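Database export, one record per block. Field names are fixed; values are copied verbatim from the stored entry.
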Amino acid sequence: MKRLTTLILLFFTMISVAISHPDQDIAVDHLKVEMLTNPAGIDVENPRLSWEIITETPSTYQQAYQVLVASDPSLLSPDKADLWNSGKVDAEESTNIRYAGEELDKDTKVYWKVKVWTNHGESDWSERAHWILGLRYYKDWKGRWIGFDRAFPWEEVSTFPTLGARYFRDEFDIKKTVERATVYIMGLGLYELHLNGQKVGDAVLAPTPTDYTQNVKYNAYEVTDLLQENGANAVGVMLGNGRYFTMRQHYKPYKIKNFGFPKLLFNLIIHYTDGSTEVISTSDQWKGTADGPIRNNNEYDGEYYDANKEFIGWDQVGFDDSAWLQAEYVQEPVGDYEAQMNENMKVMQDVAPVSLEAIGQDRYVLDMGQNMVGWLQMTVKGKKGDTVKLKFAESLQENGELFMTNLRDAKVTDTYVLKNEEKVTWEPRFTYHGFRFVEISGYPGEPKIEDFMGKMVYDDIKTIGHFETSDPMLNHIYQNAWWGIAGNYKGMPVDCPQRNERQPWLGDRAVGAHGESYMFDNVRLYKKWLDDIRLAQKADGALPDVAPAYWRYYSDNMTWPGTYLMIADMLYQQTGDTSVIRENYPAMKKWLGYMADRYMTEDYIVTEDSYGDWVVPPPSIEAGTGQNADVKRPSALISTAYYYHFMEVMSRFATILGKHEEIPSYQSLKEKVHEGFHEEFYHQGFYGDNKMTDNLLPLAFGMVPEDDRQRVFDQVVETIQIKNNGHLSTGLIGTQWLMRTLSDYGRADLALKLATNTTFPSWGYMIENGATTIWELWHGNVAKPTMNSQNHTMLLGDLTVWFYEYLAGIKAGADSPGFKVFELAPVFVEGLDSVKASFDSPYGAIGSHWERKGEQITWKIKVPANTTAIVKMPISATGGILMNGEALRSGDMEVKLGSGEYELVF
């Protein structure tokens, strides 16, 4: 799937147009249409459409387009399109084209296609795509919420709750011919939907989590093919606890939000060929039970499944539900109903284990070979009552037992109770684990390694980037980053997947999200996260440290909440979508005013900071062994520097939105903060306490007077080379600006050294000590285990940004966000013999592959259609440059190239 879809409003089919040229003999790729996500049930009245031009003809640019939208496929022609015919629009834009046709009613399915004119001719019409406008208003929903707002005698509501799944079902008759049918469902906290004995869709752990007091997401599915015409039909829904019935009950209620017991609202809208419509909805005529096989389900503690409690055929017509209870009407959630635009989670990959070893009587340890996120599928055969337990951990103790201490009080155990002697294959539904190792106990007979398969679970988004170099360590770090980032996509970017936390901390993703955007098609996820942050804002302007605010942390610091601005800026730069700024600008402005009112002194120093440069490495492994890393070191230098930076960001946002009257106030305050910062923290060649981060931030933010920049940067270099013996000493904040700042000041070689180090502290040190993801701490193998997650992303900092934008040189144009015009300017750093990277931009694949042989560099690049690449040559290329075998003019150190593939040699 092409990344272009990320510019569609989160739900759309992406049209790829292959250019055809009747008058020219050229090679043309095939026409194709690919689904981004299920296009059913969007709630945007005027969605934006995008397409990608695929052609082998060099230097192809769009000059015009025409979009047709119709209520029926047969009407998709210029003279019949009944909803919108854009006409021929003279424009280069092929992304974010807003639908401007007839107003659409709820549950309306529409079809669309596009053709383009380029500088080489006119294309054929694309294949058609479609979307369904869902239920936009509260009153569009029929029926009522159902559930059981209580625990049953066999359940316990305590600090460690044991609440099983709820099962609901209903039967209904269809007596007419169905034209189309769409399900709209809100199942909280998690649901699995069945129609006539079949699971609907391939999502797991759906829907996406939110703060349910603010908003509740619904999912939509086209289910026409699953219905039985002229007969009886059955619907069944399982409800899991998820984040709604939270993982810890009656525990720190001042901190942890709880929303209530699981509940369901279901609408099936059936359109018949005679023009009539019927709605099947939840009511107290449905039947329900909590006395099913899923006896407990909890994100921290696992799932308990007793197969003896199964009810075969519960989701099919004719099931005897006389022993079930009548469904009960329950209070609806407080939050607004919204269509879910970001992807649900899915089993994205199977991971085969690499070893299975006995560690004692009836106990075995399974090694997946990779720290992963998801669950274990098990095949087992035994006798009735046999109970198999699967306990999960990231690492082992020296004696071969699971290392559990770093999981805190998370029980992380799945349990399966057999009901007969038949062979069964089982996996949980409403939990997930972060693990590499699994202790298996109670397995009947001797387990075999082929009886188990790991299921890697994360949001259903594409990997859109590729990166590899001649250095095996860099490649290994990149792979570790991929596994950690992917596994922590859980409808929100969580900090870790294994212990009793798993929270969407803002500070962890501030710059990291930028690097992730080259690796994953994660735009819809991060747009949803901006909504979570905005909705968590207090009336006075305060922003949280965690969003959705499942933990009530509002510590009033600049760095964690400031991620709000940085994610919006990243999304705009990578996609060109101004809506992310427009929708969030007022909340950002309000927060910055709140912070200035409360914490800015008359000398323009921002005094409030909570975490400082979080988790800086200890001076040595010995000094960090057994020590608690949860140490806050507040820094007014950090908070003031960030306020300065955010004034610059807000000035750019105001410019983009045309709020020019607001820019002078931002610039004036920025200059005053700058003066106060310099006066307070500058000390003849260094800032603050001369720590790396103290000097990196003013350099990265452009706060150092020109005459002093080299002196300050020299302090950074001296700290790395002399004080740290060639190592970094930055925590979460400093590492976000480390690699790029070093490279911007001409020391990419030093950045490469930091990236390839294998001794403490470094990413390579993690790998040398067995890491297959990124640790929470630089010394995560020896720190006090209450805080040493082995699968975090926060210490990646700007490393993956550096991989793509510096080593590969792929970067959106400074004045052209979204890669319509982009830069190709690698740092051909000594010490690397090759870098090969690609990235599916909104317009298609961008490639950059350079290789050094002796004194010669060969650089192959790929530019997608309808874009321009600004290719910057290295200053060292003084001996002449060949492009596709022809010499460039002397002095041409920067060239503009249209679409195509090129080879440069210098």
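Remark 1: The chain is about 20% helix and 30% strand.
Remark 2: The two ends are 35 Å apart (CA to CA).
End of record.
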